[in-house]
Amino acid sequence: MNRSFKFHVEARDSGSLARAGLLTTAHGLIPTPVFMPVGTRGTVKAVAPDDLERLGARIILGNTYHLMLRPGADLVARLGGLHKFMAWPGPILTDSGGYQVFSLSKLRKMNEEGVDFRSSYDGLKVFLSPERSIEIQSALGVDIMMCLDECTGYPASRAEAEKSMELTHRWARRCRESWRAGEGDRVLFGISQGGFYPDLRKRSAEAIAELDFPGQAVGGLALGEPMEERLSALEAAREAIDPEKPMYLMGLGFPEDIIEGLRRGADMFDCVIPTRNGRNGQFFTRRGRLAIRNARYREDPRPVDGECGCYTCRSFSRAYLRHLFQNGEPLAMRLASLHNLRYYLDLLGGAREALLKGTFSGYYTEFYENLRRGREEGRDQGTLNRRRVT
Amino acid sequence: MNRSFKFHVEARDSGSLARAGLLTTAHGLIPTPVFMPVGTRGTVKAVAPDDLERLGARIILGNTYHLMLRPGADLVARLGGLHKFMAWPGPILTDSGGYQVFSLSKLRKMNEEGVDFRSSYDGLKVFLSPERSIEIQSALGVDIMMCLDECTGYPASRAEAEKSMELTHRWARRCRESWRAGEGDRVLFGISQGGFYPDLRKRSAEAIAELDFPGQAVGGLALGEPMEERLSALEAAREAIDPEKPMYLMGLGFPEDIIEGLRRGADMFDCVIPTRNGRNGQFFTRRGRLAIRNARYREDPRPVDGECGCYTCRSFSRAYLRHLFQNGEPLAMRLASLHNLRYYLDLLGGAREALLKGTFSGYYTEFYENLRRGREEGRDQGTLNRRRVT
Questions:
Q1: Closest Cβ–Cβ partner in A47, A50, A79 for B317
Q2: Residue B155: is the preceding peptide bond cis (ω within 30°)?
Q3: pTM for this model (two decimals)
Q4: How far apart are CA B316 and CA B312, in angstroms?
Q5: Which of A339, A360, B143, B345 can bridge A354 by disulfide, Cβ–Cβ 3.0-4.6 Å?
Q6: CB distance A329–B43 less than 8 Å?
Q7: Has residue B53 been placed in a domain?
């Protein structure tokens, strides 16, 4: 266990499992709950590290799958590691690569040893195993590494989910062994799976908890399942996770997912939604979502969100932002990403503040009350047209 | 003549026509010589107004052609004018729309009254005349407007160049009449033409000078002609332009064009090259250009230009920038634009400083000396692959 890594719970909500805490890593302190902007290939898309610092981001996420293929972990290592390569001085967490292997690489062959797949960049064969994933994440030099897991889809049969879960447990042990052999300032988090079967979710969280990682994640959610199934799975997992350790809810989600995750004890969140949906012209606000390409904003002189303090809202009208999106101006992507990241960071920053003040239940109620008001006011709720932006 | 507009020459080079001056406009002071980043459709592509302020840009250019079509001058006016619309607090100059009508709209019909053309956005018929151009630029609310001119191509026969020049003169008178009827804080600059016939260039500059605009531009250069023809045309025009007024050399160019324009008395410059070529991966440095996609930069840990103080050079390696370009990351466009704009702004800022200190001839010599050294060192000189970025 790394000496520079610590987690300390500062305050707990009386009506839920939500809590505020402080994570200490080699690259800095992280007040929790925390949202981690996703820096896929060594860049949070359309946003620079100085933007992230101005936004108050405290930790970002990198994707092992993308980085191992482009530009390659060895190259990043030779250039001084991911922090230096991308000029981000704060903490970095990398996923294990597993999720993207399952979501992006169609031709894959799983076996006990690992997974063979074809790169989504050039079709070349690549092999990923628990040991290889740890090796890559170590080469990247990040603060928090994740175990390689297998993620079953939704729906999946109980047998499938169980088989996949067992493999994930064996891989977690191998990741742990492999990491033990390593050194440096990194820590390794475990990931539990279990599909949408609460008893499997609990068993998986127990099995991973036994390996005594310094932090534990819940993976394999937000695959298209209804909210209730998602929350049942999360609650079952939470029961078996050490409440003194940070809990990371992987890949979720919309603001509603995050606020519900908070209530169920999650401390760390990441998702591409604020940046990806932003690049498609969807803006998040306290009153709901707003699809800026909508003709109703053609001459709208108001900011996207009058209560938001981000550069975009302080400077530009909806009409201007719509103009940028309608004409494919590159600035559009940045301004939307800045706003949406600020929204997500504020959502969690506000929750933290409320937790420290003991007013989280009011914060939670107000969150839904604001959304309800937005619907009453006829906010468009940001239905995206499906023009895909990568 | 607008009362808030002034121009004052502060220093002159003893060996050339280069000079340093100060322009006063309603939206602020502009130390000259000055480079104006091009904000085509109400945005300098991939760069935000706060970036421009950090870079030290003092005035930007907007394109009347694009703005009249997208989002429309009336809409910009209803939203408070171009400064407010794009959140740029400093001075703005707009061109007249003429150049883009000639370069972008293939189906056009010229007559004495004006030009009918089809919008390059949607093919709809549009009419532009001297009066209409002034009306649009007035609606945009900019600080410096330009007369509508006709730009002949290269090569063009003497007869063509002369006919087009005469039309430009008649249009300049109409623009002036139209502008006189207007009001506000705007000024109108004249533009001389004359193709690549020095005697026509001189006649045109004289004809425009007679109309006594507060500033005078030389248009119709950088159309593919050799450097010598360009400079002869410029020198001929300069002879007839009032040396107490600011001279604007339109649409030029590469750093060599700018330094030669400086020596021939130009005070104001604009060009899309730093931003457009930046978006294609071409970086400008004191030692010449650098095409960042080149495989030689794959593991190059050095900044693009070790002498440059821009955010890009202070933060990122060539290897990282190449990675961004190779993978189509949107951040690439911004980082390259920031660097190249800084290069152009520094080129002119350095020239101004040298002029004030009386050391411009040394500055000029060093400029070429640095380029020569770059070639000796095997700098790639940034040959662009022709993958077009808009």
A1: A79
A2: yes
A3: 0.96
A4: 6
A5: A360
A6: yes
A7: yes
Count Cβ atoms within 10 A of the Cβ of residue B8 and give its class: 0-12 exposed, 13-18 middle, 19 or more buried: exposed
Nearest-Cα residue of chain A relative to residue B40: A329
- Domain of B51, in residue numbers: 6-271
Picking from A250, A271, A292, the residue at the C-terminal end of a domain is: A271
Number of domains chain A is built from: 2
Rounded to 5 degrees, φ, ψ at A234 are -65, -45
Query: How far away is chain B from the Cα of A49, in angstroms, using its nearest Cα?
Result: 9
- In a domain, residue B389? The reply is no
Interface touch B315/A50, C-beta < 8 Å: yes
Kindly state whether residues A191 and A237 are assigned to the same domain.
Answer: yes
Q: What is the DSSP letter of B383?
A: P
- Determine which one of B95, B149, B305, B346 is catalytic: B95
With tokens 């290269």, the residue in question is B154
For residue A252, give the DSSP letter.
-
Strand-strand pairing, A125-128 and A115-118: antiparallel
- Clarify whether residues B47 and B138 are in a common domain: yes
Based on the fold, state whether residues A132 and A165 are members of the same structural domain. Answer: yes
Residue B48 lies in a domain: yes
ipTM of the predicted assembly exceeds 0.90 = yes
Select the residue of B43, B50, B320 nearest A324 (Cβ to Cβ): B43
CATH code assigned at A267: 3.20.20.105
My answer on whether A319 and A207 are in the same domain is no
Query: A-side interface with B, Cβ within 8 Å?
Result: 41-43, 45-50, 70-71, 75, 78-80, 85-87, 279, 298-299, 301, 311, 315-317, 319-320, 323-324, 326-331, 333-335, 390
Beta strands in B147-243 (DSSP E): 187-192, 216-218
Of A271, A294, A312, the residue that ends a domain is: A271
Sequence-separated (6 or more) residues with CB below 8 Å from residue B237: B192, B194, B201, B202, B204, B205, B218
Among B79, B86, B335, beta carbon nearest to A301:
B79
The chain B residues in contact with chain A (CB within 8 A) are 41-43, 45-50, 70-71, 75, 78-80, 85-87, 279, 298-299, 301, 311, 315-317, 319-320, 323-324, 326-331, 333-335, 390
Helices A255-263 and A330-357 cross at an angle (nearest 10°) of 20
Beta strand pairing status for A60-62 and A92-94?
parallel
Three-state helix/strand/coil letters over B347-369 = HHHHHHHHHHHCCHHHHHHHHHH
B323 to A42: CB separation less than 8 angstroms, yes or no: yes
Alpha helices in B6-63 (DSSP H): 49-55
Say whether B330 and A46 touch across the interface (CB within 8 A): yes
Min Cα separation A292/chain B (Å): 15
For residue A311, what is the nearest residue in chain B, using CA coordinates? B50
Nearest to B85 among A78, A320, A329 (CB): A320
Mind listing the pLDDT tens digit of every residue in chain B (390 residues)? 557 899 999 999 999 999 999 999 999 999 999 999 999 999 999 999 999 999 999 999 999 999 999 999 999 999 999 999 999 999 999 999 989 998 887 778 999 999 999 999 999 999 999 999 999 999 999 999 999 999 888 999 999 999 999 999 999 999 999 987 556 678 999 999 999 999 999 999 999 999 999 999 999 999 999 999 999 999 999 999 999 999 999 999 999 999 999 999 999 999 999 999 999 999 999 999 999 999 999 999 999 999 999 999 999 999 999 999 999 999 999 999 999 999 999 999 999 999 999 999 999 999 999 999 999 998 877 766 444 444
Kindly state whether residue B342 falls inside one of the protein's structural domains. yes
Percent helix, strand, coil in chain A, to 5, is 45, 15, 40
Q: Which of B42, B48, B315 sits opposite A323 (nearest CB)?
A: B42
Provide, as residue numbers in chain B, all residues whose Cβ is less than 8 Å from the Cβ of A320. 42, 79, 85-87
